[in-house]
Every structure is written in structure tokens, then in C-alpha cells.
Amino acid sequence: MASNTTESTGRKITSRLSYSFGAFGHDMFYATLSTYFMIFITSHLFDKSSSASNDKMIFYITFIIGALRVVELLIDPFIGNAIDNTNTRWGHFKPWILAGGTVGSIALSILFSNMFGLNSSNPLLYLIIFAILYIMMDIFYSFKDVGFWSMIPAISFDSAEREKTATFARVGSNIGANIVGVVVMPLVVFFSIDKNNGQGDLRGWFMFAATIAFVSWFSAVIVALGTKENDSLLRKNTEKTRLRDVFKVLARNDQLMWLSLTYCLYTAGIQITNASQLYYFTYIMGKPGQYSLLMTLNMIIGIFTVLMFPPLAQKFSRRNVFFACIGTMLLAMLIFSFAGANLFLVLLAAVLFYIPQPLVFLVVLMIISDSVEYGQLKFGHRDESLTLAVRPLLDKLGGAVSNWVVGVAAVLAGMTAGATANTVTHQGNITFKMFMFGVPALLMIIGTFIFFKKVTLDEKEHAKIVDELEKTWNEHLETNGQESMADIVKEVAKDTTYTAPISGTMLALSDVSDQNFASGNMGKGFAIKPSDGKVFAPFDGTVEATFPTRHAIGLRSDSGILTLIHIGIGTVEMRGTGFVQYVDKGQHVTQGQELIEFWDPAIKKAGHDDTVMVVINNYKDIKDFKYVVESGEVNHGDDLLTLSKPEQKSDDNDQK
Hints:
single chain, 656 residues, 3-stranded antiparallel beta sheet, disordered N terminus, disordered C terminus
């Protein structure tokens, strides 16, 4: 037994580390493409002898990149469906992670080259091959991206293990995204034949890209070897999303749409500034090697910034955190614009600009997640995958805008092949700063104004939405075109024994302080003052409803009994803190199987009542309740009541 436990623990650690390394390589690839590809195009791809034709080629390439990224946005929402419908001996996700890693890495390496001089000898053919390679790389990257981050639920059905895996992955991705900036110039200069005032040459940039491409590909291989997809009926794709429904689902959720517009403007702004920073160190400060120092600081700070989010959001609210972050970033851009070549001011401004970015990302991610329940309550349909796909889609759109702006800025400022900090004019510096700081600031201010006026979905509003969903969680089960609950219960061959889902002191439901439950509006049942923090299945059945706050769960017994188990009063406001859920919606459970575990001191510390309410929602379809125990101490698994099936009228009675 001990060996099995050790092996299981070792398997989990291997899986976490493998997945974390996969995130490391995945975000190294993304950072290379989104931040450093444009400086290669504008400053190194073309010979400095023909500036007019070079500027024209830069314009064509920049336009192609932006246009292809916009076209690819139309493909992204359907990639998830393709992955869901992929069935191989290796699972749904691994084939796409490996394919995306392989094709993307090869394409990235080629794109960071002049294709054996084809860019000068035959520019038209170069542009055609470039467009084909870029869209192929971008699509395969998207398959890898969606497949990789969608793999977390498949790695484990244990919510606690999923959270640990996701945390490991976020740390890996943060290090991967920032370490590229640390090594980019040292690697470029190391592999370059012509050091070019610290800017490197074509050979150096190709070897840099090839190194990143190899690490990214190798990390995909490690994910494939070190993780295991767990398959079950729970993960079977039973419903296909029609193409025409995808955008309709996204567009009808007004909170999601206003937030999307805000984030689109914001992410375009920050990506323009982020992608311009290496230009600033190269062409304004004249010290591209010092860029590594900034990215080292960002890598270290980024890890701690993510840990700051929960206490900040809890104390000041997500909305206030968002506004404070935007204010800090605008201040940073103001300092940056006047910093000149002063390294201390540049580092101060750049770090101040970076610190809020993970916080804003988490604020947006949380509101997008909450909009799933908003849409569910408003339209009676839960569109989780499609809703969460919006954020990466908007990041790509922001990247397309960033590529256009940075390419134009580099050409207009004279920061192209052959230029140095000494050759860029004062007017060129001013022009570049207008694009690096002025355009992003304007985009972020407009986005913040939209957020202030239109995005109303905060923590309190979400708590009300979840509360409403608790009251109506079972309604769709009786109106989905299938048999009614009464018909299902009539087919039961025997009565259902309902066991205690938790240990503690049994109370009358009418005695609890929550009027929704005490009045009987939620259903007929009982309450238990818990002596333990573990909730178990009271019967064999199916998980029909889960909640993002993990404080409640809806079950349907194999005999058709609908029950809601609700932990605590007001605990929705805890937003899942102190709760671990071990099962998922659609999963079949057996009597006595652990469903949820909670830390009772956390509930009391938050000032909430820890009473567990248990109700039978379709009690009107049940003949009667026979209580085995009505009060006193109970242990989980004790028989509490027998639910009798309804009387079936005989043919004789029907004739009467």
C-alpha cells in the first residue's frame, strides 16, 4: 500500500514538473514571436543599402502579419471543437501539442532567416512563402495553445491536484516569457559574426530563434512523455457546437462583450509598449545588452506579483485593483517618456509598467470566468469553453495591432537596418516615443472608460448570480425535452435511502437563518451543523450542477431524486477559498464517495454560518418522506430518510 502511495505521489510530481516545463517552453515561443520578431524584421532582415525598398518590404511584411492574425482569429473558436473530436491512442491533446510544437518550431526558425537571400533576390516569392509559413505556424501554435491549457482537467479529476498543476504551470510560463528577454541579446551577440554595436547580425538572430524553437519543441515532448490523460465518460464530447452558434454565443453576453472591448484596447496598448522596449534600449539608450537586466527584474517580480492578487482583490475589490493598475501603468509611461538614457529611470518606469500587468490579467480572467454564470442565468445555457476562449483570442488581436504599430513606428523613426542610437535623429526619437507611449496611453484610457461605464459584473453581482443559479439549478433538467422528474421517479423499482452527506448535529431546515431554505422555497429537507469538513454522496447518482465557488453541489440519484447540498450561509462570497471539489459535472458517483472538502475555520473566520443545508428539490414528485433520524448527532453514511416512489394509478382507478 505504501509503495503504491509513493508511486502515485511520484507520478503526480512528475506530471506537474513536466507540465510546468511545457508551459515554460510554450511561453518562450510566444514571447519570441510576439515581442522580438518585429525587431528582427525591421532592423536585421534587410540590407541597409536600399532603405526605400526595405521600408516597402517591411510595410508588406507587417501588413501580412497583422492581416493573417486577424484571419486566424476567425479560426480560433473552432479549434477547440477539433481538439475535442480528436480521438487517438495518445488522447485528445498530446497529438496537437506535439504537432504544434514540431511545426511551429520549424517555421519559427525559418522565419528568423532571410531564406537564403530570397528576401532580396525574389521579394515576391519571399512574401508568398513568408505568408504560408506564418499562417501555418500561427494555426499550429493555436492548436498547441488550446490543447495545452485545456489539458489540465484531463491530467486529474482532483480539483486540488488541478490547482497545483495550474500553479506550477503559471510559474513556468512566467519564467519562460521573461527569460527570453534575459537571453535574447546575449545569445544573438554570442552567435553573431558581426557584433554590430551589440545588435548582432542575421546569423545571431537565426541561432537565437533556433535555440528557442528547440527548447519549445523539447518541452512539448516532455509534456507528451511526462503527463497522462485520464479518460472517462465524463470527458466524452456529447454535444457538437455548430459554427454559426459560436459567435452568437459570445456576442449575446453584454458583460463579456464590454469587457472584451476593454481588454482588446488594453492588451493592444501594453503589447505596443512591451514590444518597443528593446527598440528603446537599442536606438535611444544605445545599450541593447542592458535590456537583459530589465527582463531579469521582471521575471523575479512577476512571480511575486501573481501572489499579491488574492489579498489585494479581497481587500480592495477587483474593480479598484484594475483602476489602480491602470493608473500605475500610465504613471510609468510618463516617467518612461522623459527618462532618456538614464538607466535608473528607465528601469524604474519599465518595472512599474510591468508589475500591474499580471494583476490586470487576473482581474480580466476572473470577470470573464464570472461572465459564464452571468450568461447561464440570462440565457439558461452554460457556454464555458467558448467564453474562456475569448481572452487568448483578444491577445492575438492585440498582437496584430501591436505588429502594425511597431512596424510603422520603426520605419518612421528611422530605426531600421543599419541604424544606431547615434544615427537616429531627435525627431525620430520623438516620433517613436509617440507610438511607444502616446498611442498605448490613449488606448488604455479609452478601455478604462468603457470598463468604468459598462462593466458592472463585480464580486457582489456574481454572488447574487450564483445565488439565483442555486435556486434554479434543477429547472433545465425538467424542461430539456426529456421525461419529467415525476415520470423518472415512477419508474423506480424500489424506494431510495438517503444517507447523511456529512457528520454533525441534525437540525430542522426551518431553524436555519437563510430564509430561502428555511421557508421551503428551495425544497424540502434538513440541515446539519457540521463536525467535520467532508461532504459525501448520499446516494448513487450523477453530479448535475457544480458552482465556481465550490460551496454547493446538485445531484440526481439513479432513481431520479434531485438534491442540493449547500455548505454554509453567505459562503458564496468566499469565492471558493477553503473549498476543494473532488468531482465534476456529469460524473457518476456512488453512495459514500467524497464530493467536497472544506476548511471550517475559514468559513468562521470570514464571519459566515457553517450550517450545511440539504434539500430535495423535486419533493412534490415523491410520495412521502420517512425520517429514520430527525435530530441529534449523525455520522456521514447514516440512514436519515427513505423517499418513497409515487403511487401509480391502476387502470381501474383511471377508469373511475
